[in-house]
Amino acid sequence: MESSAMDTTLIEDRHKDLQGSMETVGADWSELDVDASTTEDEGIAKDDHNGQHCGVKTLFEGETTCTCCINWVDEMPKDLRPSAEEESENRRHALLIRLRRNHNDGKPMVLHSIVIQSSYLKSILGQVFQEYSGITITLKKLVFRAPFDCFFHEWHRLEKIVREVEDPIGRSHGRLLQKVLRSELRETISLSNDLNRNGVITYDYLWTIFKPGVDVYTFEDGYDRIYRLQRATYVSNISGEFLQLTVHEISCDGDRFGYQPKLIHIYKFSGTKEVQDLDVFPASCHPRLEEVKNSLRQRGEMFKNVHLKSYFYGAYKGTVMDGHNNRNVDGRIVVDPLSHADFTTSHVNLMPFDSSSLKPEIDVSDQPHHPVQAPPGPRPRGRRVPQPPPYPGRPPAPPPQMMPPNPPPPPPGMAVGSHPKRGSKYSRKPEDIPDNLLHLCSAYVRGYCFKIKKWVIFHIDHVREIQWHDDAFDSLVLQDKYKKIIKAFVESHVEHKDQFDDFIEGKGQGITMLLEGPPGVGKTLTAEAVSERLRRPLYAMGAGELGATPEAVEENLEMILEAAAKWDAVLLLDECDVLLAQRTSNDLGRNSIVAIFLRLLEYYRGMLFLTTNRAEAIDPAFQSRVHLTIHYPRLDAAARRQVWARFDATAHRPTALRAPDFDALQDVVVNGREIKNVFKTAQLLASHEKKLLAIEHIHTALSVSRVGAFDP
Fold this sequence. Notes:
Elements: H1 2-30, E1 60-61, E2 72-73, H2 88-91, E3 95-101, E4 109-116, H3 119-128, E5 142-145, H4 149-153, H5 155-164, H6 168-197, E6 200-202, E7 215-220, E8 223-237, E9 240-252, E10 257-267, E11 272-274, E12 280-282, H7 289-306, E13 312-322, E14 325-335, H8 337-343, E15 444-449, E16 454-459, E17 463-464, H9 480-495, E18 511-516, H10 523-534, E19 538-541, H11 543-546, H12 550-567, E20 570-573, H13 588-601, E21 607-612, H14 620-623, E22 628-631, H15 637-649, H16 659-665, H17 672-688, H18 695-705
Parallel strand pairs: 18-21, 18-22, 19-20, 20-21
Antiparallel strand pairs: 1-2, 3-4, 4-5, 6-11, 7-8, 7-12, 8-9, 9-10, 13-14, 13-16, 13-17, 14-15, 15-16
Helix pairs in contact: 3-5, 5-6, 12-13, 15-17, 17-18
């Protein structure tokens, strides 16, 4: 009792102090309303002309008479007094109900907000909204504003917790809050239940089915997707009216796993609509939810596995996203989101991968008064389009200055921004992605496509492990002494790479091999076979992708060398004489390109194969930097027979070719590439005739192509 009396006394004293301070506001400024001539300057003659009177006059803001001007008056407003909520009587109540004028049809006054002052209620609401962020129950007051969507979504939880309160005072406070909210939410709850029973929804009540924190399903780009919902907001802008869903998926930026936000829109529609016909709807409404989630968990396992290392070298067959264009690709790829971000303008912004990142937010602060000031300058012409009034049961749209802009359509999972800082809340450990969240992993990964030589986005469903051709090197149609020295040279470099160095640290740690000889003798195939044997990426670069100017060559070559070194790739430059031709005194552009190659390759730590059929045209300064040069002779008869037999053995369909046919074909003077082209042409001809490939088909192909003389 003594404590209660002391509290009441303190409150009343505070009220008196506040009221006294308000009453003295005018007095403080009125003290300046003095005539200077009555004090120190009594000897100065008075002058009543404008601006000549030595004195101060205080003016006050009066009643508004114009939307753009302030009405100044010389008397203090009589209604200047403390806020009603500071009155000691009002502070005693568990709840304060704020009503505001209704400027639409209906009741003259509508509920604006509820102020929670009861410590019992604060404790109850702390339990009700424990999965939300933004609530601090130790604050003096918590303010909840209409339309109270958080109470709608947690209504059953509120009822349960109030029933379980043991303290009779706390339980009565909880029931009082329920009574107030029930009168406000009764119609919304009733209509929402009716819509749910019929499996339909209206645009105005869309928000009722999107409870923050639930999983939502959508069919995106031909694939099932499930996201975690953080909030749903009605938005109206120049593109129309829509419900904006802020959702999250699990992604990786190359350094760590984390949550990536994304916006999904459901545009306004008329009447009712089947929930499952929406572009996105709560995952719990999906008729095959467990089947879909199991499929997405398998996708999540693949997503996790390809990001456990700094890069993933794999095979791909499907559509890739190159900017705003989609292309079909069948070939080798590298999944490397960090390098993708380094060499493109797009990268991923991630939120910390912890339990609090996706918690929905509730603002329970009492918004202070912020006067809206018109910007300087003339007012824009035209009429401002008024915002539509809020629909029944629907949270109102935010004011125009608070509306998020309609986002541009980046590729899925992409966002433009800066790299997030490293921190302990990010992780690339597989165990830090719980099994119950694998279905939230992104469907897209970023990396490089060797087929089209571009940084693109891949769909994880089309990424596969590579089926390696381990016998590719042994199958090379090349003299054993050549294969022996290439094998020894390459494998020694791999095993003892760090032991070979120049006098300058980091210089000369790579190896360069020049393969020179006539076309079609297996130079390019050698580099391909080495990459298969080592199970490393093969980066075949050409003059076209490097560019024609020294600036373009330097930029592209730096990117290629950096990526190839990171991936331990086998680097191949076909027809290197095009770029590395001998320098002359009258071609400064070519001289610059050769100089750039010499400088950058000096510090390249990887394996480089160069091929040419014009070795004499290469600049001498570059030839001196070649560690091993191998001359490929023209194919002799035995080699040509072996090549013909090799293509027959690897054909996808059986053939009618026999040993005597190969004996005859070996005498046709053709190179390996020409044999490949003739064999393919003969296969197409046999397939068209629906026959097995026979020597007659090869005879026809040779005759048409005229690559060699053939006498059957």
